[in-house]
Design brief:
The structure holds three protein chains of three kinds.
Chain A (H helix, E strand, L loop, with lengths): L2 E10 L2 E11 L4 E5 L6 H9 L6 E6 L2 E2 L10 E4 L11 H11 L4 H14 L15 H13 L5 E5 L7 H18 L2 E6 L2 H7 L2 E6 L2 E6 L1 H6 L4 H6 L6 E10 L2 E6 L2 E4 L12 E6 L4 E4 L7 E10 L3 E9 L2 E8 L9 E6 L5 E4 L15
Parallel strand pairs in A: 3-8, 3-9, 6-7, 7-8
Antiparallel strand pairs in A: 1-2, 1-4, 4-5, 9-10, 11-12, 11-14, 12-13, 14-20, 15-19, 16-17, 16-19, 17-18
Chain B lengths: L2 H32 L3 H4 L14 H7 L1 H8 L13 H32 L7 H11 L2 H14 L6 H26 L3 H8 L4 H12 L1 H17 L2 H6 L8 H5 L10 H32 L5
Chain C lengths: L7 H30 L2 E3 L7 E3 L3 H8 L1 H32 L6 H9 L6 H11 L6 H8 L13 H28 L4 H9 L4 H30 L2 H7 L10 H11 L3 H26 L3 H5 L1
Antiparallel strand pairs in C: 1-2
Helix pairs in contact in C: 1-12, 2-12, 3-7, 3-9, 5-10, 7-9, 7-10, 9-12, 11-12
The chains are: A alpha+beta, B mainly alpha, C mainly alpha.
């Protein structure tokens, strides 16, 4: 069942947290709402759940308008950040509560709970109270509670944020696996781009109550629609610098910190303003000797080993530093001269005034 | 352990014991007095440890009514105050339990409503309740007496229950409000998503987790209504309708004071509170922590 | 869904209703009645005779030397009670805050007075402070601290002293509980940091403990001051305001005017004065503690 939002707005007093959203979550897809805290993603999820009323607009589940219905009437399931397990009930009762409320007979309930518990490998915990469970086990119970009812829509509000790093990595895989098995339309809220990238069919990047970009993980990573998305996605974050678009010898060039770089040909440069913002990911920057032609010279400001890679920060103009992610075997002395070579195919250009990406002339590979 | 810390510890224990002795002494002394025969009570210098033990004072209190009516003499002077002791005890028990039931239920419902739904003026209510809680009983008591008189309720236990509900409700409300504000709302939302109605959520999810708050509110109410004197004094007339606190002060009415009887009633009056204290000490401290307790 | 279902709004109103009815009928109304009564002459034995007298009741109490006597005695009784119970409470809480085997027993016993009915304490006090056969006098004389029995409850100064002692005995536990609760939330790292910085025990108390206790002490002192000032039962049950009128406070004054003299209007006027003082105290409290600030912020 798809989920459609029409002109959806939400205000708390004078504070508008969602600004007239129009979007469709396609059927059976796993969609992630990604954004920094306070961007409105959790509010949007809670409105889809029916826990918050919309100030304006409509929500449709398939052909059914649901925004006037209570959460219980929407046939959704939700996994909360804190798991929200019922503290006075044991695991079996927690998972079976939604069925009990719907009047399912006890033996049927026990059977369904048993099946779900087996899938989640928590069968041996059914008689325990939430207090006696570990974080990962609580997480599974919360999932079980959501899965047992065969909901139309599956909502998850940062369900992995309370787990330690190792468990989080395992659970990411499992959640993806469950989704592929169940094929239920899922909406997942997170501020962790790694979760968004690894698990989702589609990612909606949100900021300030507006969806900045809605696309596949590849799209938001390789073709960020604006400066916000470009800066938010990717780690370490993308390097940005203001550049001037000039014409030298009949060819367009970008002037970055005094160095002229040939303008990449994958952007349509006709009629764009001369002031642009260049963006390039550290992974697409390499370090070369200071006199190399076509490279941006500077001074090594800081190096950091991050395992198999090394981050090298080079000051190319006063207060302007670019980071390059290179093999750990590359070594640079602090304060030595070096130059950065930018992969021309991986350069992003944005309109400095609007922050929007320039129109591209190529299509996404693959 | 070094000698220095050992001496420090011994000194600390000694100091604590001395203070504890001072704190407990009046009640211990009341108990010793209550089990001494009359002539020993009035002996000077007093005996610290009772020389002979007797239960005559307790018997006089617990069997006083029976004894009076069995004597049949029905003296013109009327029954002695001690004949009413059991009545008073029962009155206090009824009033205390009634007040506790009403105050906790009403405050729990209202506090839940205030923390989970939107109302005009909803921020103000708990703070007004806190102000109401600071208003001393002496201000309520006379006008409330007039209200009770209008309703023809004076000299009934029900009027006392209403009076105590009024002096305990504001703080119970504040306590429960603070409690519900601290309970994560997500658990209720999970139940709503599971399809339960609001009433069902309240009954099956909220109430079972709200016990610590409810117990704190109940303890507060129990203490206030068991210990109050003023309302009983102003609202009640008939000897058989008095609460315990007002009743025992009648032991001072005669020309000479029967200290044995008095101390025995002190002990009996303290026992229910002491039992409560021992059973619920943990909750008691938690309840105090949530706010200050009236006294 | 099945069955009948209330909307959130209906549930909210339904749950509020008992509170609103009770509070309205038995709290707001009586207080309004109390204020109204302050402007009438009213004797409960002659209920039909309710006369508007304007500010006469207030003039009467302000002209009454006993009112002013009660007022100043209330100040004395409150001042001594608060100072003593705060000092004792903080001191004992510090003692009880150590991790020693068996400390829980002491904690429990020291908190006990708080739940003892005031009537019981008053009875016990009258008994142990009895001037002829009381154990306190016996102890003091046989220890050689005083030469002859003290008339604890029948001389003005000693009666006030006894009343203060009663209040201190009953409410020090309250201070202990509040301070202990706060002490337990002070992170031990703070003390470790101070030790590393070379602060000795006394300096640590002054520089870390006291500032951390400031907030709770302000709350406790203001609350206890308001309640002690208005307290009726401790004084009335112990001394009935006597000997003479030497331990009257405003509450006892109001009670005697209403109960013994049947001048409910005068009693109500005294009540209004007390409410005004109470509100002044509350304003001080709000100012000093910044109470409600966190509410505005959200």
């Amino acid at each position: 069942m798809d989920v459609r939002l029409e002109g959806l707005s939400k205000s708390f007093g004078s504070n508008q947290v969602l600004k007239s959203l129009d979007m469709t979550f396609p059927e059976r897809r796993f969609v992630t709402l990604l954004g920094p805290s306070g961007c409105g993603k959790t509010t949007l999820l809670r409105m889809i759940a029916g826990l918050e009323k919309a100030t304006e607009g409509a929500i449709w589940f398939g052909g059914r308008r649901v925004d006037h219905l209570s959460p219980g009437e929407r046939n959704i399931a939700m996994v909360f950040q804190s798991y929200a397990l019922y503290p006075t009930m044991d695991v079996a009762a927690n998972i079976g509560y939604g069925l009990k409320v719907r009047g399912m007979a006890k033996p049927d309930r026990a059977e369904k709970v048993g099946i779900v518990a087996k899938v989640l490998e928590i069968g041996h915990l059914l008689a325990r109270k939430p207090k006696a469970l570990s974080g990962g086990q609580r997480q599974r119970v919360a999932l079980g509670r959501a899965m047992v009812r065969k909901p139309d829509i599956f909502l998850m509000d940062e369900p992995l944020s309370n787990l330690d790093a190792k468990l989080r990595a395992t659970m990411r895989g499992e959640l993806r696996r469950f989704h592929l098995d169940l094929q239920t339309t899922s909406i997942y809220v997170t501020h962790d781009q790694l979760e968004a990238m690894t698990m989702s069919d589609l990612v909606a990047v949100m900021d300030a109550g507006v969806v900045q970009q809605f696309g596949t993980p590849e799209e938001v990573y390789d073709r960020p629609a604006n400066l916000f998305v470009a800066g938010f996605i990717g780690s370490p974050p993308m390097n940005f610098a203001e550049v001037e678009l000039e014409t030298t010898g009949g060819r367009p060039v970008l002037r970055l910190a005094g160095t002229a770089l040939p303008a990449p040909d994958h952007f349509d440069l006709a009629g764009v303003p001369p002031r642009l913002v260049l963006g390039i990911r550290p992974q697409d920057v390499s370090v070369t000797n200071p006199d190399a032609a076509g490279a941006v010279p500077g001074t090594v400001w800081m190096t950091e080993l991050i395992g198999s890679e090394r981050l090298i920060e080079v000051e190319i103009a006063p207060k302007l530093r670019f980071t390059a992610e290179v093999k750990s075997s590359v070594r640079c002395a602090l304060n030595s001269r070096a130059a950065l070579r930018l992969d021309p195919a991986r350069i992003h250009l944005f309109d400095a005034a609007t922050g929007r990406s320039l129109a591209r002339q190529d299509s996404l590979p693959g | 352990m070094s000698a220095k810390t050992l001496i420090g510890r011994v000194a600390l224990y000694a100091l604590l014991s001395a203070i504890t002795f001072l704190v407990c002494f009046p009640l211990v002394w009341a108990f010793f007095t209550s089990v001494k025969p009359k002539e020993e009570i009035f002996r000077w210098p007093p005996t610290l440890w009772p020389e002979s033990w007797t239960l005559e004072n307790y018997r006089a209190l617990l069997e006083g009514k029976q004894a009076y009516f069995q004597a049949g003499a029905a003296a013109a002077s009327g029954p002695p105050p001690s004949a009413f002791f059991l009545d008073w005890f029962l009155n206090s028990l009824i009033v205390t339990l009634g007040t506790t039931a009403i105050s906790t239920i009403v405050s729990t419902l209202a506090a839940y409503s205030l923390t989970r739904f939107r109302f005009p003026g909803q921020r103000a209510v708990p703070y007004l309740a806190l102000v109401g809680y600071m208003v001393p009983s002496i201000i309520f008591v006379f006008p409330m007496f007039l209200v009770m008189a209008d309703l023809r309720l004076t000299d009934t236990l029900f009027s006392l229950i209403l009076g105590y509900v009024c002096i305990t409700l504001p703080f119970c409300m504040w306590l429960m409000w603070a409690f519900f504000r601290g309970v994560p709302i997500e658990i209720e939302e999970a139940a709503l998503v599971d399809g339960a109605s609001r009433l069902r959520v309240f009954w099956e999810i909220v109430l079972p987790t709200a016990w610590p708050g409810i117990i704190a509110a109940a303890i507060f109410t129990l203490i206030v209504s068991w210990n109050d004197y003023l309302f009983g004094r102003v609202f009640m007339n008939s000897m058989e309708n008095l609460p315990l606190t007002v009743g025992v002060m009648h032991f001072f009415d005669g020309t000479h004071v029967d200290w044995g009887l008095m101390m025995a009633s002190s002990v009996l009056m303290t026992v229910p509170m002491a039992v409560l204290f021992m059973l619920l000490q943990k909750h008691l401290v938690a309840g105090f922590g949530a706010g200050a307790v009236k006294g | 869904m099945r069955g009948f279902r209330l909307s959130d709004r209906q549930v909210g109103i339904l749950f509020m209703l008992p509170f609103l009815v009770t509070a309205g009928a038995f709290m707001v109304w009586p207080v309004a009645e109390a204020v109204r009564l302050a402007f009438y002459s009213y004797n409960p034995l002659r209920p039909d005779d309710l006369t508007w007298v304007g500010f006469e009741n207030f003039e009467r109490i302000f002209d009454d030397p006993l009112f002013w006597e009660s007022f100043s005695q209330a100040l004395v009784w409150t001042g001594w009670s608060i100072v003593l119970q705060t000092l004792l409470g903080v001191g004992l809480a510090m003692l009880l805050h150590v991790a020693l085997p068996g400390i829980a027993v002491f904690r429990g016993l020291l908190l006990f007075p708080y739940i003892v009915p005031t009537v019981v304490i008053a009875l016990n006090w009258r008994w142990i402070f009895n001037s002829e056969i009381g154990i306190v006098n016996h102890a003091l004389v046989s220890l050689g601290i005083v030469e002859q029995n003290i008339a604890w409850l029948s001389t003005p100064n000693m009666a006030m002293t006894s009343a203060v002692l009663l209040n201190v005995w009953k409410y020090t536990p309250f201070v202990i509980i509040c301070v202990l609760a706060r002490l337990q939330t002070i992170p031990t790292e703070l003390y470790d940091a101070a030790k590393v910085d070379g602060a000795r025990a006394w300096r640590r108390f002054i520089d870390i403990t006291l500032p951390m206790l400031k907030e709770v002490l302000v709350v406790v002192i203001v609350f206890r001051t308001i309640w002690t000032f208005n307290k009726f039962e401790e004084i009335y049950l112990l001394t009935r305001g006597g000997p003479g009128t030497s331990t009257f406070n405003l509450a006892v004054y109001a009670f005697e005017e209403g109960m013994a003299n049947l001048r409910l209007g005068v009693a109500a006027a005294t009540g209004v004065v007390m409410i005004v003082l109470l509100l002044a105290g509350t304003v001080v409290y709000v100012r000093v503690s910044g109470f409600g600030q966190e509410e505005k912020g959200s």
